[in-house]
Amino acid sequence: MKIKQKKRGLYSMDEFIKQLDPNLDYISHEIKYGKCYITVTSNRKEVTCPFCGWPSSRIHSTYNRTFQDLPVQGNKVFIIIRNRKFFCDNSDCNHTTFAERFDFISYKAKKTRRLEDEIVRLSINCSSITASKILKENVVDIGKSTVCNLLKKKKHR
After folding, report:
1. Burial 94-108 (b: 16+ CB within 10 A, else e)
2. Helices assigned H by DSSP within the chain
3. Each residue's pLDDT tens digit in the chain (157 positions)?
């Protein structure tokens, strides 16, 4: 699948994913019922423990983490990242393992930062109920309470 126009043609899926983070590699995608599921993996050789700053390359395990991103060609987009857990070898750290983190999505978030920004932008001038209805149709699976929470969160930044 080719998406989004650039100056000399279309982006490949790998180029599209690298816009989120250059350390991600595209694996596959599937479109079902108006939803696009894109599977990616990290290509980092070493990551830093978020608790102590110690580098680690020793993988503990992997798990799938799913979150939503901006829609593409009328399809809601769900990204499935094969997230890795690493061992922290720093004996002074209180954590023995930690999950790989990415700048484009907050810790434990279900939506990318750019999607959260779009939700806030669309919701700022209408009620949370109206905003959630509009967003459900066109952009993202969301409820009115999530709209309210995102508006509060962005207000305090």
Report:
1. eeeebbbebebbeee
2. 13-20, 113-123, 128-138, 144-155
3. 545 554 555 778 888 899 999 999 999 999 998 899 999 999 999 999 999 999 999 999 999 999 999 988 888 999 999 999 999 999 999 999 999 999 999 989 999 999 999 888 888 888 888 888 888 887 788 888 888 888 888 775 5
